[in-house]
Amino acid sequence: MKPAAFKYVQPADEDAVAALLAEHGSDACLLAGGQSLVPMMNFRVVSPAVLVDLNVLPTLDFVRSDGDTLHIGALTRHATVEDSATIAQTCPLLRDAVRHVAHRTVRHRGTLGGTLALAYPGAETPLALVALDAEVELRSTRGVRTTPVADFIRGGLDTTRKDDEYIRSVRMHVPPASSRSSFIEVSRRHGDFAIAAAALVLDTAPDGRITFIRAAVAGGTGAPQRLAGLEAALEGRTLGSSMEAAAIREAIDGIEIDGDPHYPEAYRRHLLNTVLRRALADVARRQGDT
Ligand SMILES: Cc1cc2nc3c(=O)[nH]c(=O)nc-3n(C[C@H](O)[C@H](O)[C@H](O)COP(=O)(O)OP(=O)(O)OC[C@H]3O[C@@H](n4cnc5c(N)ncnc54)[C@H](O)[C@@H]3O)c2cc1C
Description:
It is a single chain. Helices cover 33% and strands 24% of the residues. The chain has helices at 14-24, 37-42, 78-83, 85-90, 92-98, 104-107, 112-118, 124-131, 149-152, 228-234, 244-253, 265-285; strands at 7-9, 28-31, 50-53, 63-65, 69-73, 135-140, 143-148, 153-155, 158-159, 166-173, 180-186, 196-204, 210-218, 225-226. The chain starts with 6 loop residues before the first strand and ends in a 5-residue tail after the last helix. Bound molecules: flavin-adenine dinucleotide (FAD). Flavin-adenine dinucleotide (FAD) binds next to strand 2, helix 7, helix 8 and strand 10.
């Protein structure tokens, strides 16, 4: 299949992107790495009248940290996130999540902004961003708005992005330097989207008590689910305590999960329990590592 005819535009700068979106609205599509958009255009799932190529805008491609905050541009490739020493030092959960995204060839083109805009269920990066309490910065001719990624993604393939907005960047507070993180996923084959995945960041006091915990899961959940109840239940407890398994079960029982003929609801729930338990065990095993 070939795409329907469209007008290809290289914007001069970000103001031009905002102006083009204001002018064309839902008739325009932004081209990032093209890893999803180009096949969707070829199959005519989408047929934009105007294609706005973001690849000519280096201002959208950056990774910066000021020590407390990590700031990543929307056009940053998955491979850049994977290779960045800054991200490895400040938010290794993000690097570990991205390593599960497709294969390296796809990661060379696919972008942070593209995966967020798409909000594909089972996508790894949005899950890590929800666990990290990240915020997404959206821009239009009306101005800039910032919203938590957890609110931005309403469900599978469903976000609060307006037709005239583009994703500019993602920003998050850096977790404590002594924290450990784990990203565990079950997928059909290496490089597939997750059937079930858990993202965890955790820090402990010298006596083993949990002083900081962020946990989220995805898989049959539509949008990634932050597990605030589990975090509250485990904070102050010793890592590896006997109540962990029951707290995990309660947290997973509390979220809505869609089943399908391939992955029935009970199976997804079982897998989500499993990946969360493995993530906690993984962090416990590395407790005290430097
Ligand atoms: C074989 C294969 C396997 C894959 N496996 C996985 C996987 O296991 N896990 C996973 O998470 N992903 C996977 N992907 C998806 C891929 O990694 C990309 O993250 C995803 O397709 C987004 O692609 P892109 O960044 O190239 O965006 P594009 O394809 O260019 O765009 C995707 C959508 O986002 C919009 N968009 C792009 N940038 C912006 C922006 N800045 N602001 C607003 N809207 C924007 C576009 O208009 C379009 O609607 C896979 C892809 C392929 C081809």
